Amino acid sequence: MIQVPICPVCHEPVVDQPAENWTSAYRSGGTWWHLADNRPICPDADGNLSPAAFVEDQLRIDSATSAWINTMTDLFALNGSSTPARLGSAIAAAEHLNRWLHTATGPFSALLSLPNAADVASLLGYLHRTNRLLARVHAQTGSYLLDQARQTQFTGLDDDNEEAIDAAADIHVWLRDAADWSAQSAQATGAAWSLIRTLATLNGATSGTRADEQRPGGNSASPAVAQVPRELSPEHLGELVGSAFGDEAGFTPELTHSAARILGTTASYLANCLGPARSAAIPTPHDLADLTTSLTYLTHTLMGGLQHLADSPRGSESHGLDDADATAIRASLTDAVVALRFAASNLATVSHTAAAPEQQNEEQR
């Protein structure tokens, strides 16, 4: 588990780097500073600066990924292999995780991945630590490059090649600037992290334990999450959505917003199915035909709804708009309907073409 250093007196996060001169002061004399305002760690009962206390950041980790995390821990242990190939593996893994984090914190996915303040706090703590790490990596890489530029076996050039040395010196300056900017970013993120941890504590929210280690009857990180079955199958989830937004559902602004958010989340998921996850999500032409058939129906449904809105008389949704703006909105909706109709036609063609091999096989039987 991740160990977070905190002040044992005020329980706020602390760091062993000050905001100024952070490279030379790193781990100097065991001094710690509060992230929120760069104050030294609080004094103990004797008036001496307290040592930092380390507590576990109780991240919720699902059972499906816990084995993978253990493998990653072994692969990239601090005393493990340090080779160009292992560095490449670490960079490739980080690239994939960065893409996932970008998607998970989007306007729709964040509703699921960040349901409460404690989860936001865990994410901000990670971003703070990552920015601090990037600052160190930038600084170390720049110094290493400058030192190695003078060695023939590293650059492949003669020792007296001043051009290569000057270029390395320029790169060193740029990387040092990048390190300073990363350190400033870490300071700002750290202040936000400290504040959100305080808010989460005041609200009685914690990140909770691992999802697969929660005990029956124990407190969950969020009352709303506790009411959801731990093993929620896709079929059960579909039934819940269907019952909430079926033919007998009521109509309120809140339900409209919820339906739009769910649609956005599923659209993001389908986009991943069509993109980086295609080999697993759509392994056969039959699966492609099924998906595009569903998307054709969805597109036709949205097209019909937008057509109703474009053709209907002005109502309360247009209050506050002048005639010109209302007319422009109606015209834009009509254009959107035309585009959706074209998209639906193309999707139907894709569905028919993808289903052709299966139909031919059935005819040959």
List the helices and strands and how they pair.
Elements: E1 3-6, E2 14-15, H1 22-25, E3 33-34, E4 53-56, H2 63-75, H3 84-104, H4 110-113, H5 117-148, H6 152-155, H7 162-202, H8 223-226, H9 234-244, H10 253-274, H11 278-281, H12 285-311, H13 323-364
Antiparallel strand pairs: 1-4, 2-3
Mean pLDDT rating? 79
Structural class: mainly alpha
Cα(first) to Cα(last) distance is 57 Å
General shape: extended
Largest sheet: 2 strands, antiparallel
Number of helices: 13
Helix share bin: 55-70%
What topology, given as strand order, has the largest sheet? Answer: 1-4
Order of helices and strands: EEHEEHHHHHHHHHHHH
Number of strands: 4
What is the radius of gyration? Answer: 28 Å
Could you tell me the strand content as a percent range?
under 5%
Return residue spans where pLDDT drops below 50 for at least 5 consecutive residues.
Answer: 205-230
Give a verbal description of the structure.
With 365 residues, this protein is mainly alpha-helical. It contains 13 helices and four strands. It has helices spanning 22-25, 63-75, 84-104, 110-113, 117-148, 152-155, 162-202, 223-226, 234-244, 253-274, 278-281, 285-311, 323-364; strands at residues 3-6, 14-15, 33-34, 53-56. The strands form two sheets. A two-stranded antiparallel sheet has the order 1-4. The chain has a two-stranded antiparallel sheet with strand order 2-3. Helix 5 (117-148) packs antiparallel against helix 7 (162-202) and helix 12 (285-311) packs antiparallel against helix 13. The radius of gyration is 28 Å and the shape is extended. The termini are far apart. Residues 207-227 are annotated as: Disordered.
